[in-house]
Amino acid sequence: MANKISNFSDLIQRVAASCLLHPLAAGRQDPGNVAEDGREGYEYEREGYEYETDEQEDFEDEDEEYVEEEEDMEEKKGSVKGWDHEKKNMSGIVAIERVMEMEMLMNEVFDSVSAMKRAYVSLQEAHCPWDPERMRVADVAVVGELRRLGVLRERFRRCVSVGGRGGRKRIDGDGMGMLKEVVAPYEAAVEELKKEVKSRDVEVENLKEKLKNLSTSLSNGNGKKGRSQSKRKVGCIHAAQVAAAPAPDLFEATMNQVKETSKSFTSLLLSLMRAAHWDIAAAVRSIEAATATAENVATINHTTAIASTIVTHHAKYALESYISRKIFQGFDHETFYMDGSLSSLLNPDQFRRDCFTQYRDMKAMDPIELLGILPTCHFGKFCFRKYVAIVHPKMEESLFGNLEQRQQVLAGSHPRSQFYGEFLGLAKAIWLLHLLAFSLDPAPSQFEASRGAEFHPQYMESVVKFSGGRIPGGQTVGFPVSPGFKLGNGSVIKARVYLVPRT
């Protein structure tokens, strides 16, 4: 470029010098000098023209090269500008696509939140009234929407990571963090379950050790103590065989449990009555009058005599008779007449299997824990009805000074008191006996001794022990204490009765 400028300056100087040496006025000189001057000027001009022509050709060549270089540079600049423009267009398209993707993601988030809200409302509505199936479906829906929100959150983090700095490494880091965050609650739940399994294993091992020690001690017993321990051992064997199939022996063992829990609850109730300064004789007379029937005129006439006989030492048997009559009422029906179900008639085989399955599931359960989870289950309704039937409002107010326990039971809950706990032990034993009765084929037949009936040792046993172990003659049934059962294998569970001399 510098060379071109220099040549152009020289050319201008040469042209200016030529104009100064050969002015235009020279053509007006004398004619005599015209030829000579013209000839000299012509030759000089011709030389100058030739010189100028060469210079101009060089300058034109260089100028053409310069123009070509400028055109090449312009083409390069245009191509760079076009690439930049194309790059900007591509960036704009990517940005628009990301905005659209984020809008779609937010729409999905709002839809998921709305669906989770509806599922949670359904979950709340399933609590009242209690609907386990609807509750299960709503719970699954809520968990599903929460998982969906977790997936959407991961997608959002991935989108942000792709748009930021760090590239693939950042995406992987966020993805791993998100995965750990999602898995963490499940890992914690698994750890809790593992701890629970370990504690249960320890508990099982302890129970096995206790059973082993008990078996050893039972095998070393003799005499009367040995016989009683043998009975307990048989009961343990029967309890161990409960998972196999219903059997008459299992029914007998459960009936023995009913007797023990009935005695325990009766003793507690009688002690509370005495602590409240009840008139036990009046209470016995009231119980006797309530149990007497119109047909038993003789019994009615001798109610006072019987009451005076038993009140001194055996009032507990009259009270146990009252409790047994209330608790066994409706035993012959599959639901204690709590509803009109006829499943035992429509599908007897399936009903028997279901009853024994319930027996196995409930046998090892604490009744208060079961009712704490399912207060309105069939067993909970049974406890409600029997408690209200056995414990009169005036009785409860006299024993405890208020009706708090009764109000809790009427409200559908179950109090955690000693008295109600003893009642639940009796209620559970009766409920298990009932389940076993309807799981046996044929079902046991229930019978009860009537007042004034002759004593039959084949079907009855006296709750009062006589001296010498023999029952004297002339004894009749003063009142029944608990019913008896005749089983399908021909064995008989004797009815317990309170005997009085014939009058």
Explain what this protein looks like in three dimensions.
- With 503 residues, this protein is mainly α.
- Among the domains are: 2-88; 250-501, no CATH class.
- The protein has helices spanning 2-21, 31-125, 132-163, 167-219, 223-240, 248-275, 280-291, 297-301, 303-310, 315-327, 343-346, 348-363, 367-373, 378-390, 393-400, 404-410, 418-439; strands spanning 445-447, 460-462, 475-482, 484-486, 492-493, 495-501.
- It has a three-stranded antiparallel sheet, with no helix packed on it. Strands 2-6-3 form a three-stranded mixed sheet.
- Strand 4 and strand 5 (492-493) form a beta hairpin.
- Helix 3 (132-163) runs antiparallel to helix 4 and helix 7 crosses helix 9.
- The chain is rod-shaped, with a radius of gyration of 55 Å.
What percentage of amino acids are in beta strands? 5-15%
Low-confidence stretches: 25-53, 165-172, 221-243, 297-305
Helix content: over 70%
- Termini separation: 153 Å
Gyration radius from CA atoms, angstroms: 55 Å
Order of helices and strands: HHHHHHHHHHHHHHHHHEEEEEE
Overall 3D form: rod-shaped
Strand order, largest beta sheet: 1-4-5
Major sheet: 3 strands, antiparallel
Strands, count: 6
Sheet/helix structural class: mainly alpha
- Count up the helices: 17
pLDDT average, as an integer? 76
InterPro entries: DUF641_pln, GIL1-like, GIL1_IRKI_C
Organism: Hevea brasiliensis
Protein name: DUF641 domain-containing protein
Keywords: Coiled coil
